Amino acid sequence: MSNQVLERPKSLTQKQFHYCPGCHHGIIHRLIAETIDEFGLKEKTIVVQPVGCAVYIYEYFDTDVSEAAHGRAPAVATAIKRVSKDKFVLTYQGDGDLAAIGTAEIVHAALRGENICVFFVNNAIYGMTGGQMAPTTLPSMKTATTPFGRDVKKQGYPIRVSEMLAPFDGVAYVERVMVASPKYVIKAKNAVRKAFKYQLQEKGFSLVEFLSACPTGWGMPPVDAAKWVEENMTKQFPLGVYKEVGLDD
Questions:
Q1: Is the pLDDT of residue 210 over 80?
Q2: Total domain count for the chain?
Q3: 99 DSSP 8-state letter
Q4: Can you tell me which residues the record assigns to a coiled coil (predicted)?
């Protein structure tokens, strides 16, 4: 006789994910949904979704969800949280949505210290639109628009979002994690929990950046893509806590 030790989070619908095999969006969705359940926030949560691979997130989260124009999720989240302070508000964004067209939005939301959680998925490429270079594409990394590799003399260097936002006075918590293997999934879950606590204790702006695989965009098998995250992306984007103001007991 066996005991069930794991079940589908109540904050996720039964809809099957549309993501490519080996994509890490599904893992990240689950971590967030599990945490919503653990804190009993299903009826209070409002997810502000991006434009990008996660544009159909409203089909997966069994919570209230609001669509935002491309890159504008922090502005929409700001309005929702200020009007409905009792709601738990989070944005879920990719590197194109947050770090390209939405750069100004995320910077000013952080500067204002908006009491929201931002979950930022960095896979170093534009996954939905054909694998073009993103603001986070690594130097020498090949993409659809950099077939010979990103040349920093022509295309510049990748943006480090966590390092950029952490020094702002309005920011309470920033951490970069990944989910390429089980031990890192556990650490990522702890980061998600901590971000939730910062909003619940009204400490201000929090962001968790996830390094994520894009096997299709990278042209790799899923296992190789997961290894590539750990062996290459972490050199450009080191894991760790970049800002932590402290939580109440």
A1: yes
A2: 1
A3: I
A4: none
Q: What per-residue confidence (pLDDT) applies to 128?
A: 86
Residue 2 has pLDDT above 70, yes or no: no
Mean pLDDT for all residues in the chain: 96
The reply to whether 14 falls in a domain is: no
Q: Is the per-residue pLDDT at 233 higher than 70?
A: yes
- Domain membership flag for residue 3: no
Q: Return the percent helix, strand and coil in the chain, to nearest 5.
A: 35, 20, 45
Residue type, 217: G
The CATH number assigned to the domain holding 114 equals: 3.40.50.970
Q: 230 is in which domain, residue-wise?
A: 25-244
Distance CA 192, CA 37 (A): 12
DSSP 12: B
Q: Quick check: is 13 in a domain?
A: no
Which contiguous run of DSSP H or E holds residue 121? Answer: strand 117-122
Return the closest-CA partner of residue 164 out of 176, 150, 178: 176
